[in-house]
Each structure stands twice: as C-alpha cells, then as structure tokens.
Fold Small ribosomal subunit protein uS15.
Amino acid sequence: MAVYLAKEKKQEIFKQYGGNENNTGSTEGQIALFTARIKGLSEHLETNKKDHSSRKALLSIVGKRKKLLSYLAKKDIEGYRKLIEQLGIRK
C-alpha cells in the first residue's frame, strides 16, 4: 500500500516550502514532500504491522530524505536549520 498524496496537497507543499507550486525540483520542497509521505506511511504501518513492502518503501524514502538533508546542510546551512525547525524533524 503506497501512500500517494493528492495533486492539490503536493502543490500546497511545494508552494509553502519550494516558493512556487511549479518548483518541484527545489530541495526544500522535495524534503517536505518526503516528510509528508513518511508521516502517512508511519500511520499506515502502525495499524498494519506485517506490511513489509510498505516498510521497505518507508526506509527507502527516509534514506532519500537523509541524502537531500545532508546536501542542503552543505549548500545552505541556514536554510537547512530553518527547514528542520518548520518540519519538526531532527529533534
């Protein structure tokens, strides 16, 4: 069970974090999108503990987000700090 977001929800995320709803390539927007998908998959896995394919998908998304976060930290440390504060990750 893959967790997909509605087109409107994706546009809202990219507008809030990427600066423009059509700017889907921004690092901040992609990290925010991955965070939303991670939250959805986590909720799914709380009720469906034996869904191993979703667990694997969750781990791959977490790895992709981690790579993007490290890239953003190298590129723009202030933007990195602002984004993790807004998303509530890396407590």
